[in-house]
Amino acid sequence: MNKPIRSQKGDALTDLILTLFRANNLTLMWGDRLVGPFGLTSARWQILGAIVQANRPQPVAWLARDLGANRQNVQRIVNDLHQEGVVMFEPNPHHRRAHLVVLTEKGRRAYDSAINAYNPRVDALAEDLSVDDIRIAHRVMATLRAKLEEEMDAEKNG
Questions:
Q1: Calpha distance 32→34 (Å, rounded)
Q2: How confident is the model at residue 63 (pLDDT cuts 50, 70, 90)?
Q3: Phi and psi, residue 103, nearest 5°
Q4: Is the alpha carbon torsion for 29, 31, 36, 42 positive or negative?
Q5: How far is CA 126 from the centre of its chain?
């Protein structure tokens, strides 16, 4: 089988993307083990984090957008969290059917417990990395994300 012809930058980005796939899978498994004792998974924890990070209660579609996730998947998880009393729905004054998602006290406790477990673990992971290297990696990831979002938007609107 012939090796595809790509630029040097394309090869380097391919290596990065493959490493990202592997790191993402490991990060999700690590997160699942970390927050499992609090009744969460990485996916649930991400959604709780999006709710906490938002300036105000938001509908599922906005949470999905902020996470870069599929709206239907987020809706399914939010519905499960609602059934378990972790989140509740509030009326949305701007849209009758798109209710706002907010944490319950149970959800706040689960999120706070997860963060309290996470903080020392992330500090340990960061121990041998420089802040500058972390910031450079973040910049590269943010740029890659923006380019991918542009491409997806162009395909959707084009």
A1: 5
A2: very high
A3: -75, 145
A4: negative
A5: 19
Whether the Cβ atoms of residue 67 and residue 58 lie closer than 8 Å to each other: no
Residues with Cβ within 8 Å of residue 74, at least 6 apart in sequence: 47, 60, 63, 64, 67
> Per-residue pLDDT for 156 more than 90?
no
Both structure tokens of 70: 């599929």
Quote the pLDDT of residue 125: 97
Cβ atoms of 102 and 88 within 8 Å: the answer is yes
* Rounded-to-integer distance, Cα 39 and Cα 117, Å: 13
Place of tokens 């699942």: 32
The position carrying tokens 């963060």 is 115
Q: Which residues neighbour 66 within 8 Å (Cβ) at sequence distance 6 or greater?
A: 50, 53, 54, 58
Largest CA distance in the chain: 59
